[in-house]
Design a protein that fits this description.
It is built from eleven helices and eight strands. Strands 1, 2, 3, 4, 5, 6, 7 and 8 form an eight-stranded mixed sheet that branches. Helix 5 links the parallel strand 2 and strand 3. The chain is globular. The chain starts with a helix and ends in a 23-residue tail after the last strand.
């Protein structure tokens, strides 16, 4: 399994931005409020992908540095940002940077907040925590917002989970590696001071796919193999899943969302990490 997110998302920028939905505006507004930002605040959006989250904040008037290591994702973020800057929708102070969670290329104590989407589960824990402590101003907050998280406990989401567990060795390894059974919030809370987490859950939303949309959404997911033969085999299996489970040519799945915000943990204070050991936990003292 490719564990480097740059490898896992290689070449997926275009399909990712087509297949993934943006953030619910109500949830973004609540996330912004929880971060406690002043109008002049600067943010680091780490693991920015095609810029969906960072641009949402740039459009609100904040200076946003979108940190993204994967080239195809970064290209999409740059295109979207430059288009908005040409229209004077966002300021020229927002930028896209070729960097990652352990090397943002930002100056020390230079941002008022660090934000991340679901990319946070890719961050090498100790190294990224140290980097965030380096770039964050005193009193700044970290926030992780997650959207488009498949509800795997009911309806067709449960069926799809079981199907992938049987048909995709890559998906099985993906599940072990990121211990999803503890939920996205368990990952984001590793970075926030204990007992100081502001947690908000969004309203579950249904999304209906036709076959082309379902396969495109599936293709954008990180566990899909890069190797052409394995990728083709998995997509054939997923096509059969759609054929067996669609109703009148459509398949409806339920997605969850939410966020966690709070003061950043200090590097020397290590949490008791829940769940089975993941490779990025190596060196963390329990």
């Amino acid at each position: 399994m490719v564990t480097d997110p740059k490898g896992r998302f290689a070449g997926k920028g275009t399909v990712y931005i087509k297949a993934r939905k943006g953030y619910d505006q109500t949830l973004i507004d609540k996330f912004e409020s929880a971060l406690g930002l002043t109008p002049e605040a600067s943010l680091a959006d780490v693991g920015a992908g095609p810029g969906t989250l960072g641009i949402a904040f740039a459009e609100k008037g904040y200076k946003v540095s979108m940190i993204e290591p994967q080239e195809s994702m970064r290209i999409e973020a740059e295109k979207a940002l430059k288009a908005l800057q040409r229209d004077n929708t966002v300021g020229l102070s927002s930028v896209v940077i070729n960097g990652d969670a352990i090397g943002t290329k930002l100056e020390p104590t230079s941002v008022d907040g660090v934000v991340a989407g679901t990319a946070i589960h890719w961050f090498p824990y100790q190294e990224s925590l140290a980097e965030f402590n380096r770039i964050l101003k005193p009193g700044g907050r970290i926030g992780a917002i997650y959207t488009g998280i498949l509800d795997k406990n009911s309806g067709k989401g449960k069926d799809l989970e079981e199907f992938l567990g049987n048909k995709s060795p890559e998906y099985q390894e993906y599940q072990r590696y990121f211990f999803w059974q503890n939920g996205m919030e368990a990952v984001s809370r590793l970075f926030i001071e204990e007992d100081k987490v502001a947690h908000q859950e969004g309203v579950p939303k249904n999304r209906t796919f036709n076959k082309k949309e379902f396969l495109q959404w599936s293709l954008a997911r990180s566990f899909v193999p890069q190797e052409a033969k394995k990728k083709t085999e998995l997509m054939v299996h997923l096509g059969k899943f759609f054929d067996e489970h669609n109703v009148d040519g459509n398949l409806t799945l339920t997605f969850n969302s939410g966020f966690d915000v709070g003061p950043l943990r200090k590097t020397e204070v290590m949490p008791n990490i829940p769940g089975p050991t993941a490779p990025w936990e190596e060196g963390v003292q329990r």
